[in-house]
Specification:
Oligomer: single chain
Radius of gyration: 24 Å
Strand order of the largest sheet: 2-3-11-10-5-6
Strand content: 35-45%
Shape: rod-shaped
Number of helices: 1
Helix content: 10-25%
Length: 138
């Protein structure tokens, strides 16, 4: 009888240790926010005022090895993209991702009579970020 109780206690200890050892301290969604190095001097909460003449903007993610574009919109209108797109070229801008963690956004001059906005949604695993570019009309 003692051997049976000892076996049950040992089995209970092994069972409890297994569940305690597998319990994670981190909660789902506990990913660190993306951190960026950039050549942009006039950025405010990921919003960039683009001069009428346009410009080239480089963003390097310093804490994730790779990211992808999950959303893109022009003047509030969503555009279809594939997360596999490493280069996107449109009429007045282009977006290129190099080495998985460097994004270059080139915006041409605005000779139109309309203000332009471009929003780029970025994803790395379960962490998301975005950049909003605003360019005034001519």
């Amino acid at each position: 009888m003692k051997t049976g109780n000892l076996f049950k206690i040992l089995l209970l200890i092994i069972f409890a240790t297994t569940f305690v050892a597998c319990e994670s301290e981190e909660k789902d969604g506990g990913w660190e926010s993306m951190k960026w190095e950039t050549n942009v001097s006039n950025i405010n909460k990921n919003k960039i005022e683009v001069p009428n003449k346009g410009g080239v903007y480089v963003f390097k993610c310093t804490n994730y090895k790779s990211f992808w574009i999950y959303a893109l919109s022009e003047s509030g209108e969503s555009l279809p993209i594939s997360y596999e797109d490493k280069k996107i070229e449109r009429e007045w801008y282009s977006i290129k991702i190099d080495d998985g963690s460097i994004m270059t956004v080139s915006i041409l001059s605005n000779s139109s009579d309309d203000n332009r906005t471009l929003e780029i949604g970025i994803q790395a695993g379960d962490v998301f970020d975005s950049f909003l570019f605003e360019q005034n009309k001519n």
